[in-house]
Amino acid sequence: MFNNGISIPVADDHPDEFGGKLRSRPRRKRRKSEFRGKSELANRTCKQLTRWWPILVLVAAVLLLIFETSKLGWKSSAVKSELGIHDKKPNVVVSSAKKPEGNLNRLDAPRCLKLLPPEELQQLDFPLNKDSFVPIKKVIYLSESDTPYDTNSQQEMGTTRFNLFTGYQTLNQREKSFKVNETASVHCGFYSESGGFTISNEDKSYMQTCKSVVSTCAFGGGDDLYQPIGMSDASLQKVCYVAFWDEITLATQEAQGHKIDEERFIGKWRIVVVRNLPFRDQRLNGKIPKMLAHRLFPHAKYSIWVDSKSQFRRDPLGVLEALLWRSNFVLAISEHGARSSVYDEAKAVVKKNKATPEEVELQITQYRHDGLPEDKRVNGKKALNEASVIVREHTPVTNLFMCLWFNEVVRFTSRDQLSFPYVVWRLKVLKNINMFPVCTRKDLVNSMGHIRKAKPLGL
């Protein structure tokens, strides 16, 4: 008989699907239970944070305040420590206004100044006397006995700053001083023994021994003293380094621990203390050593002037060879970096409040009246200069030039950039001037900038 039933095979390798579903339910229940537990924990945490958040914010603020206060304390102690270290080191330049130490003692290779190799610098010496033609053979410096005081001269325009140091140059005498032959007569400071700029006999004796000199000055407690670098042993034996101070600067430096030794030196610099400065304007007092080195060092053949804001960093004999001897120049001075015209410079001087509009107008009006052209070049050279470094041979021509230049800054403004082109233009006999580029000046010195303002004399 046929079996009408349907057989369903059952094998162990086919799991019961329904049974599998039943077995998976407990696992799903466990996961759901774990998730619900975490959610409850998060909810409780949020409730606690919501309840206590003002206190947490307050604690965070207190911690932040404590941290910032501790930082200020660290900075204060660090500054005090640094100042204490500086105070204990004499002859180190320190300024609360500026930090020029970044440039100090930087002696990188010159870019534009073509110095001889070190072995040749060591062998350099002053050249023998030259037999070349000189248009001026002698300069006579006028004194009180030569030109007695004339009360009428004080009434002339622009003569109010002349005194017993400069002599009372009239406009007529000024005009004659530019017309020279083999002999020239000119006012050139040190007009009278009672005129001021008093130097001790000991210092005078030392200065008379100098055959070549690098000089600087700081009056009115102005800039600090930067030690020269880069010189050869030969130069140290043949070149004087002289710094002129007044009594205000002396007191300022001593208060900072910069003491003059028994031989009147600080490092390489011989310190000459000047008393009875003749001008109330310290800028004018600074023009005396800057422009009248031939009067201060009567036996010197060469001089290099360096402004107090700069550190001289080259071998002086090498500088003389590169800027004077190599091309037969007698005067070397840097070109102005920004402008070329005297008249443009006059506008800049007024704009920067470096002189009053009235005194600048007085000077420029006189120069226009005399016929000074507006050309940006004078005698083939750039008209405007930057006189922070002056290198020169002491010849009758350059000595006369510096006297004429000095008289202009006394008569008009002390901004010597304005009067330099005028004197070059008027003194036709001075041709061989080396107007070197700004990059050469930067090779010569490390510029620090002025540290503090000089105090005027209370005259």
TrEMBL record:
> Where in the sequence does UniProt note compositional bias of the Basic residues kind?
22-33
Highest taxon of the lineage: Eukaryota
Feature: compositional bias, Basic and acidic residues:
11-20
- Domain TOD1/MUCI70 glycosyltransferase-like intervals: 154-450
Entry protein name? TOD1/MUCI70 glycosyltransferase-like domain-containing protein
**Annotated InterPro entries:** TOD1_MUCI70, TOD1_MUCI70_glycTrfase_dom
Q: Region (Disordered): which ranges?
A: 1-37
